[in-house]
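[Q] Does anyone have a clean structure-token version of this?
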Amino acid sequence: MVWSDLLLFSPVILGLGGMALTKLPDLLDVIQGTPGQSDFERFMMDAGRRGLGYSDTMRELDIRTIFARLRREASGSVAADVGNWKPILDARVEQCLQDNPEHAPDLIGMMAGLSYGDILYPSEAAMVDDLYSGFRRHRGCFTIDQQAALRVTR
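[A] Here you go.
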């Protein structure tokens, strides 16, 4: 009699079990601190904490996207011809500013004071450093002089 009752209610039991399993990822996110949250959601939450409105947030996202594209294109071009890295990098920056005139002031402000090592990917910046003996980098992205400075005690 118990088995027949169990078989009678098995669709209900399986349905409830399935519904519970569908909520398992949400439960894990709550327990683990929302690791499944998308990058866009984190970006929007950060912008909200900084007090930016939606239009300002989208403008900042556009500027960051343009800078990421510049970084990718400049790194690819420099990797193809490391010997002419400076004119290539300058041309890519100028082209980026011409292609995005509405964001040019913000891009210039973002890039002010950045070295080539901040614009290029670390591997391409290391290739440029390898051209000059005084600026050789260890692959950890520190110059030899910077590594020595970290070891100096006062």
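[Q] Thanks! Anything notable?
[A] The chain has two domains: 2-32, 54-151.
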